[in-house]
Amino acid sequence: MHRRSTxxxxxxxxxxxxxxxxxxxALLLALALSGxxxxxxxxxxxxxxxxxxxxxxxxxxxxxxxPTPSATPDQVFDRKHTDVExxxxxxxxxxxxxxPSAGYDWVLDDPEPDxxxxxxxxxxxxxxxxERMGAPxxxxxxxxxxxxxxxxxxxxxxxxxxxxxxxxxxDHPEKTVTFHITVRK
Length: 185
Prior knowledge:
Layout: H1 19-39, E1 75-77, E2 83-86, E3 91-98, E4 104-108, E5 118-127, E6 137-145, E7 149-159, E8 175-183
Parallel strand pairs: 1-3, 2-8
Antiparallel strand pairs: 3-6, 4-7, 5-6, 7-8
């Protein structure tokens, strides 16, 4: 009795494909790639330009994290202008240089601001160059004055903040900034 082999026989030369299958494959690849490119942005454009740009929510656990987008602030303060004086109900933003894609971020430091005086309403990242990976930008921490009083927002800029890999050394110096906030009519 002659047994038939169950193993496929090797071919002496590769099977030729028709031009139609090559065109079909190229079209499928192009459609797949164009679908992936549209999904990268998460469906929501990033704000650019000025602090009045619309906000986008973030889910990070750092100072740049916020559960909600915020309204356009009435005033913007930065590291050179840390004495903040606003009226109750007024919206304001704290502006800081940012580069989280390089591992640096701003985190809220103790003591936390008095929530009876000021409330955090959101945050916005504005990139200087949206085409360049790792490009620096600006972080806007949005707040609203709640009632008369004084408090402070102390922020720490560090490398890999809050992780097991957080570093503070001469290559990764820690910076702090404290905004002194006075709310009065």
